[in-house]
Amino acid sequence: MTEPHHDVRGSGPVLLIIPGGAGHPMGLDPLTDALADRFTVVTYDPLGLAHGRLGEPVEDQRVEEWSDGAHRVLEAVLPQGESAYVFGTSSGGIVALDLLARHPERLRHVVTHEAPCVGVLPDGGRHQAMFRAVYDTYRAAGLQAAATRLNATLTGQEPSPEPVGGQPLSRDEELLNPMALFLTHVLRQFTTYPPDLAALTDSRSRLTLAAGSDSRGHLLFRTAEFLADRSDSRFVEFPGGHVGVAQHPVAFAERLVRTLAPLDDRSAPLPG
Q1: Of these four, 72, 141, 155, 223, which has the most CB atoms within 10 Å of its CB?
Q2: How far apart, in whole angstroms, are the C-alpha atoms of residue 129 and residue 216?
Q3: Spatial distance between the Cα atoms of 127 and 76, rounded to a whole number of angstroms
Q4: Under CATH, domain 5-121+194-262 is a member of which superfamily?
Q5: Which residues pair with 18 in a beta bridge?
């Protein structure tokens, strides 16, 4: 079995980064630069899009497959007897939740940022249908129309009429566009994923739910708060909005370090 694609930089305890979208780690260099003097930063690329596989065929994705790949990455990079920190944002945050629920061994702490597992909400079915509508919009009117509708879904705005003349990408164009891959093969599949609340509650001392301060009142801020309450886990605000990791990478990294600093004791025993 081919080892999952990943990059390693820095030194210190292992911190696994699971990107959002289709898993392409583009735009994460400023964050990893800011973290590499404190952690061994391992950036997971589940589809290998930054490792020569952009343009190759992609099937519908499953959270569990990405999670199993992340687990294999950790088994490959973790020194014997040590445990890892995990940070996942957006769709990567859902993977981080599954990783904690299904592969908790050798995980010291998991931070998930605005994971769109909206099915946990009392009105989750309605929001899942809205994400399906984003996919339908992409198929009917192309990337820009879908991006506009996705933003409306995340911020609670009424979707605007679709722009006239928008065209979906061809299959060849789609395979070269990470955003298109996200819309076609990740968005619907991941937003219907049901987190294992019982398992997350059992691991609540090792879980922090996070959302951006600019996302207050938005769908994924509410989702993170709700999931933190249901699992009796910690909730923390991070700089920026849903893409705060790219908007404010240095401040975002500093907040992540402060979140993990009280837990950063490699001499402590592994969590039970």
Answers
A1: 223
A2: 22
A3: 37
A4: Alpha/Beta hydrolase fold, catalytic domain (3.40.50.1820)
A5: 88
